[in-house]
Amino acid sequence: MKRPALLLLVLGLVAALAAQAPAQGERPKRRKDRCTFCDHDPEVLAANGMSHGPFPFARTDSTRIAEQGLWRPTLLETEHFRILGDFPAWKIPMDEVKAYRAELAALRDRWPLVKEKPGTLDRWYRIHLLGERLEALYDRFCELVGTSDEEFLDPARNEQRGVGRYLGEKEKYEVMVFAEASAYREFMVDTWGLGYLKPQCWNNVDRDCMWFGVNLQTEDIHHDKHLAAVVVHNVAHNLLNGYMHYSYEMPVWIYTGIGHWAERAFDDRFNTFCTIEGSFDVGKAAKDWAVQVRKLVEKDRAASFAQFLRKKSLAELDFPDHLVSWSKFQFLAEEHPQKMAAWLTRLKTRRDARGMPDGRNLDAAQRAAFKDLFGWTLAQAEEAWRSWVLATYPAQ
Ligand SMILES: [Zn+2]
């Protein structure tokens, strides 16, 4: 299988060179597809650790994907992500102009071309903003689990630990966005053999990296931050899975909890529910989660840690369970950051007697890690969380 890979690499290089070099004698003119955010300025891009491709992606690479789909996706590669897809122009609503201007102003030091007052975000602004938001999430995730990028720079040490360069995976985290449901479905069938329309996280075993895909049509996504929130939610799943290498599933309440926690920290107006179709009604999604969780605690109807530990699949989580998974995750991550970092890392690095990744008996492992790292029995963990909810969440 080595030869096709090499050929791909060579083809990619030729494509990259062709894209960069204008024909001799031709005056370099402003191409239509020039990035409005960075002007494809190689120095600015390199200083930010980014490029506009081409790059390897999914099962092939960005160039082949564009050719096969007769498509012109927008591309951005950042330090830790590869992003490819449709990013329709989006007009900033009046009441959000201020927030967007502030977000862009904070980027101007690193991106000198960024406009002060764009009324509409074109595809280049949208993909660059998403790239910045994902890099911020990556940093936040490193902080959450108590690691840093530098921990994964030494190839010899990585090999010894059985991990890759990107938090544990060999290649960068991938994000793919389709405007249309039909094109998404076609790609899903051709690439992963799944006739899906819903957002999907996928472990790309061939290239040892985590992929996420979504289409705007099925999810009824119209707002720039709605798309970013869905991506943040799912990439949080993928970072957790990829951390110290994806060798086994994390307990379902932690998987759910980190998604809601990351998404709501980004923008709490948008909430994504990863669930088995029909297991609960998302239509009644509560607006103020803190108030709802407090009510559940007061009525003694919130799922306990002991109950969460036993849940094996997303189908076992009802709507209130999603709120409670967010709250419990938030409590551990924000009230006890060091202990939570050690707790998550321990659960992600379990090894059996032969030194192989060990995903068995994760309920017992969680209980033992609570005891060792927090000094809590499950009942004590429960009590600590309940007291915190009652002390910090508003009644209405
Ligand atoms: Zn750019």
What does the model show?
There is one protein chain. With 396 residues, this protein is α/β, with parallel strands linked by helices. It has two domains: 36-246, no CATH class; 286-396, no CATH class. The protein has helices at 2-20, 42-47, 62-68, 97-105, 123-145, 155-161, 181-192, 216-219, 224-242, 252-266, 289-298, 305-310, 319-335, 337-348, 362-374, 378-392; strands at residues 56-57, 60-61, 74-77, 81-85, 90-91, 120-121, 173-178, 200-204, 209-215. Strands 3-4-7-9-8 form a five-stranded mixed β-sheet. A hairpin with a 3-residue loop joins β3 (74-77) and β4. Bound molecules: zinc ion.
Ligands: zinc ion
Could you report the average pLDDT, rounded to the nearest whole number?
90
Spatial order of strands in the largest sheet? 3-4-7-9-8
Query: Low-confidence parts, pLDDT < 50 over ≥5 residues?
Result: 1-29
Provide the β-strand percentage band.
Answer: 5-15%
Oligomer: single chain
| Gyration radius over CA | 22 Å
- The overall number of domains is 2
Overview in brief:
By secondary structure, the protein is of the alpha/beta class. Helix content is 49%, strand content 9%.
Layout of helices and strands:
Blueprint: H1 2-20, H2 42-47, E1 56-57, E2 60-61, H3 62-68, E3 74-77, E4 81-85, E5 90-91, H4 97-105, E6 120-121, H5 123-145, H6 155-161, E7 173-178, H7 181-192, E8 200-204, E9 209-215, H8 216-219, H9 224-242, H10 252-266, H11 289-298, H12 305-310, H13 319-335, H14 337-348, H15 362-374, H16 378-392
Parallel strand pairs: 4-7, 7-9
Antiparallel strand pairs: 1-2, 3-4, 5-6, 8-9
Helix pairs in contact: 5-9, 9-10, 10-13, 11-13, 13-14, 14-15
The structure holds zinc ion.
Zinc ion (ZN) binds next to helix 5.
